[in-house]
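Database export, one record per block. Field names are fixed; values are copied verbatim from the stored entry.
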Amino acid sequence: MKKRTFITTLAATCACVATYAQTYNVNIVAPSNGSNPNVSIADQAYNGATPVSPFAYSGSTWNNVNVSSGSTTASALTDTDGVGSSVEIAWTGSNSWSFDNTSLDLIDNYSWSNNASNTITFSGLGANTQWDIYIVSQGDSATQGGSFTLAGNTQESSGATPSLTDWTEGSNYVRFANISADGSGEIAGTYTFATGGDNAVINGFQLVAIPEPFTMSMILGATSLAVVLVRRRKARS
């Protein structure tokens, strides 16, 4: 193989590995309650792009989960590459309702709790793996958002503007960055009302795996090799 061809192939491989992140998308579906129930987001083949805004519908595979009264478990989630898994999300205090946001389908249906203390658990993630976790939290009233705590870190979605037409961190979703699963592949937490709120709301989730150190070292090693080959070629010419 010519060096130029090798380097081109190597660079393309590095780019593909660097941009891919294992992602799980979950959309809450209200089976029958509210003004706009049963809003599902169609499963589509993942296009390999980084999650957008941060929740991209087009080109992403979504797991549509019906809410059960009392507690809900979303199990055996499919990732955005269409591959099944043992990843599971379970939360307590769930009831379902819906409204019509008109712009953000993911917000139309939600799980809600009027309990001050609720649990939420992400499992099947792989021992000691790291994740960015997004939780969408916006009800049909300005008093409905949520305060979430994972790994001792608390983030709040105010839920103050049900009519928002774009994604705004702290208003209709929260983001936990670089959260580590424990030795059994689990991240456990709690959630409650947002400040001044009377219901805690969950509309959906997005879990994005952070590349492992081994994967990053492969990328850096391959990049370094490409640089060395380029320099040797220049030295011989």
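Remark 1: The two ends are 18 Å apart (CA to CA).
Remark 2: DSSP finds three helices and 13 strands in the chain.
End of record.
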